[in-house]
Amino acid sequence: MKGLGTVISVELRLAVRDPMSAFFALAFPAVILWMKMRNGGTLPGGLPLIEAYVPMLSVFVIGLATLVVLPATLAQYRERRVLKRLSATPASPAMVFGAQWVAHLLLAVLGSVVLAVLGLVAYGMSGPVDPAAVVLAWLLGALCLGSIGLLVGALAPGGRAATVVGLAVFFPMVFVSGAMSARETLPAQMRAIGEWTPMAPVVQAVRAGWEGQGLPPVAVAVMVAIFLVAGGAAVKAYRW
Amino acid sequence: MTVIELNGLTKSYRAHQALAGVTLSVGRGEIFGILGPNGAGKTTVVECASGLRRPDGGTLRVLGLDPRERRRELLQRVGVQLQEAALPDALKVGEALRMYASLYDRPADWRALMAEWGLDGKRRTRFGALSGGWKQRLFIALALVGDPEVVFLDELTTGLDPSARRTTWGLIRDMRDRGVTVVLVTHFMDEAEALCDRIAVIDRGRVAHEGTPGELVARSGAGGTLEDAYFALIERNAS
Ligand SMILES: Nc1ncnc2c1ncn2[C@@H]1O[C@H](COP(=O)(O)OP(=O)(O)OP(=O)(O)O)[C@@H](O)[C@H]1O
Ligand SMILES: [Mg+2]
User: Fold this and answer.
1) Is residue B213 within 6 Å of ligand 1 at its C-beta?
2) N or C: which end of chain A has fewer CB within 10 A?
3) How far is B12 from chain A (nearest CA, A)?
């Protein structure tokens, strides 16, 4: 794993340097937050909107960074023989995966920080009630969704295909899993479908931590299980 | 002392046999040239010897290690410049060298390499904005960034301007004088003649001829330059 830190810092810089991924991971979620907050108000049950939307959209950011940007980057690297050059060094597939995952996780951290600052400064956000639980849930979510992103990146034949697959996985999921519209406001049927997406336990766990309700054990178990299965499959499917 | 030993190497890509039993050996501190027509199997030999491809049959040892078994260990001590490779377009020259250096246990001084290969002025230039020849120079420098004992250079000076070629030749000789073993694939006969201690001519997946440039010229009976000898030898091999 020699050089992991250097590779991560370089990859993060490349992600931020790319106008598309910088816009989608950093600016786009903030714009959505602004649109959602225009009318203000509370959710059914009395929770102020901002206490729901910041944790929800932070999951949206994890999804964008790890399900859309990450697989596109990895598959493009393979298509353009960037990975081939790397395969002629002592770097291992595990190190490439690790570096990609951490770099895109840090991209999502940046996007989430933008959301939190906006929430604090512009909308009087008071949460999270249990910051440690939120961080833990968020990291588990990044592992769970990131392993799916790595799997897509390992299998996709090229950058374009990976982007198409990534978007096709990401967009339906954010709508039905409650990352973009609060679960409480979704039609029952949609919510029932959403429960089956890998993003649902992430939204559930991050919001539960945010509201100080402790982490739901089932959601945690599902995230860990997805990480193990998808991560294992990604390692098996990896090609330079 | 022998540092590269290939014995009866075979490799097929589906139905197409790229290597039909390649046998050759390279001694420490040699500059060994590989010549041959397009599609002869030169790149396949280099990729098998450096552990990037698995040959189907035959035996091979590089620095005493079997690249099939000890690939990662070998890649600590071997540098490769690939014929076809790329870096991310947005990656800057300095970043590329620093990052690749970080992957090795005992890397060379990447700043010194950057200066040696004239890349100082391009340090902040993105890979995507480099011209072909500058990309080539960066790839040569990246092949050396692990301070290798053996370097494989596939199409060393393709795309370099005449003065960069001459500079490159000088730097390759310096490397040899420091004890580094160099295997270079080239299509330039003047380059092979000027640089190589020994040469293998590969044709249709086999070593058709092997020897010093002088021996090849003598064997061809064509006299003159290595280029004349090369054509005579390839033609003889075809019939
Ligand atoms: N990945 C591959 N899949 C299928 N066939 C391949 C592959 N790589 C090489 N070949 C075939 O194997 C043969 C040898 O290829 P190789 O690249 O080793 O030749 P080369 O001597 O390096 O040629 P050049 O001078 O054009 O670089 C060629 O016929 C080529 O078409
Ligand atoms: Mg070739």
Assistant:
1) no
2) N
3) 19
